[in-house]
Amino acid sequence: MDGGATSSTSPWYAALGGVTGGAVALAIGELAAGLIDRSPSFVVAVGDVVVDRAPTDVVRFGIDAFGRSDKPVLLAGVVVITLALGGLGAMLAWRRCRRGPLVAVFGSVTAVGMVLCARYPDARLAAALLVPLAAGVIGLWVALTLVGLLPPPATVTAAAAGAARPGTAADLDASVPGTEVLPFASPLDPPASRRAFLGWAAAGTGLAATAALGGNVLQRQLVTDATRRAIALPAVASAAGGAAVDGTLDGIAGITPYRIANDSFYRIDTALLVPRVDLASWRLRVGGLVERPFELTFDELVALADVEADVTLSCVSNRVGGDLVGNARWQGVPLATLLERAGVRPEGTQLVGRSVDGWTGGFPTPAASDGRTALVAIAMNGEPLPARHGFPARLVVAGLYGYVSATKWLSEIELVPWDAFDGYWMPRGWSKEGPVKTQSRIDVPGEDATVDAGAQVIAGVAWAPTRGIEQVEVQVDDGPWRDASLGSVVSDETWVQWQLPWDATTGRHRIRVRATDGTGATQPEQRSDVAPDGATGWHTVDVRVR
Ligand SMILES: Nc1nc2c(c(=O)[nH]1)N[C@H]1C(S)=C(S)[C@@H](COP(=O)(O)O)O[C@H]1N2
Ligand SMILES: [Mo]
Q1: How far, in Å, is the centroid of ligand 2 from the Cα of 315?
Q2: Among 53, 354, 474, 534, who pairs with 412 as Cys (CB 3.0-4.6 Å)?
């Protein structure tokens, strides 16, 4: 192999050295985040700032484009960019025969990591500063060591050695004693053979990948199922409908069940890592514009949680026909009970729920005590709240979109004047009030489904909490609007399942649905976007009958 060929491949060897150093640094961060309580992961801390600062349109684009994998995609982006910076620094360091560029890249990424980890919600300062620092130093050392294994660029060796033996020293395959080495030659015996270099790089990356994976598994387990299972839920005084509901349409193949199981319930939040809450030190504070602010421990809260009700929760980002909506049975303490104990002052016209991760949602205080279900919930479908749905406590308020009302990982209920505070999503272009709009959805047949001619059933769900659903109508092609029959409901705060028998004829058909709420208002046909206050329009599916 001649020197020319090597000089065109060597920058990539250098880059690989930098990438490996970066991978080792990131892996140390992930492992520490899994092993040390309240030690934030660099990747998550950076991703969090991106989510926080990104324009709403970008966030929405992310959700649209990647759906439920928007978070993994974002985190992978942070990893790729960090590794690329390491590679770039290493290429420059190699080309210039100086440590400087590598030190600069690792130094600045480490500094950014220390700042972002330190300001990550609930982080322990010492861990937030020391972990990125240690990771950065070790990563830099790995990168310098690997790049130091490489022979210097051909141009440099040629200049140093004169034209007598152009480029030979740069041959990666020949580990010739006495050949030129970089001024920061590696302690590992430079210049190494191509095989030795690749071996060290592969070992470094492999170790890093294993550590990062292990760290991730550990991070997930920090909220242990054991903690959740140990919680004894009190008996409920008022179980609207009780655990069993008769007369649902759950038996229809393909219809959405009346109650969604915890594992299948939609999840929407800004948290890249599900916040982990230490039950022993967790408190729910009730304060702000109240006469008697107070705090509750988790045990005290659980002891008060004797109300259970079905509430259909919906996300304002749910598109027509979308699935960011679900019904569950929630057990908790009525907000009214807590507010009575605190004594709300007249100026406390907004109830703000704050999360341990700093997220906030706020709604008009009267909604907490106007008779609708409004709970500090500790359980979902008879189980302590799953971590993803807000363990140990969350708000559930019937009839309001989640973004204004349903604070998960609740840490504080604060009463403030309506105009004095805007929740998380307001500055990001969503409206301040978020009553749930009436929506209906066709579950069967599915969009673009092919069904057999003959007796079929059209079925789905419709919701208008707290107004209730009075009527659901279905239209096939240009036929008449026909009344669907409705399944049983526990209350007007839940969705209703509906069905209509259909004599399907061969060909293509368009099916539409519209619902009328308990006030007699029918869903408008006019489609509007989810922003700023929820989508409108009739859900339509196209099907083929054979
Ligand atoms: N702490 C916190 N709570 C939150 C959110 C959030 O981002 N952070 N998102 C809200 C939104 S927009 C919705 S729609 C509901 C969704 O609740 P779920 O994930 O349990 O379905 O949670 C709400 N509570
Ligand atoms: Mo939402």
Answers
A1: 4
A2: 354
Gap between the Cα atoms of 59 and 270, Å rounded? 10
Q: Is the peptide bond before 153 cis (omega within 30 degrees of 0)?
A: no
Distance separating alpha carbons of residues 147 and 11, to the nearest angstrom: 10
**Nearest C-alpha neighbor of 373 from the set 348, 412, 417, 406:** 406
Report pLDDT digits (tens) over 401-441. Answer: 999 999 999 999 999 999 999 999 999 999 999 999 999 99
∠ at Cα 315 (362, 382), nearest 5°?
Answer: 90
Question: Relative to the CA of 390, which ligand 1 atom is closest?
Answer: 20
Q: What is the 3-state secondary structure (H, E, C) of 478-526?
A: CCCCEECEECCCCCCCCCEEEEEEEEECCEEEEEEEEEEECCCCECCCC
DSSP 473: E
Q: 316 CA distance to ligand 2 centroid (A)? A: 5
Can you list the positions of beta strands (E) in 32-174?
Answer: none
Q: Give the pLDDT confidence score for residue 51 in this predicted structure.
A: 82
The pLDDT value recorded for residue 177 is 42
Torsion, Cα of 344, 347, 349, 353 (10° steps) = -60
Please, are residues 77 and 65 in contact by the beta-carbon 8 Å criterion?
A: no
pLDDT in tens, 149-188: 998 887 766 555 444 343 343 444 444 444 577 888 888 8
Decide: 25 and 41 in contact? Cβ < 8 Å: no
Q: What is the largest CA-CA distance in the chain?
A: 94
Question: Which numbered atom of ligand 1 lies nearest the CA of 313?
Answer: 21
The conformation of residue 238, written as its DSSP 8-state character, comes to E
For residue 541, CA distances in Å to 67, 443, 454, 533 come to: 20, 9, 18, 24
301 CA → ligand 2 middle, Å: 25
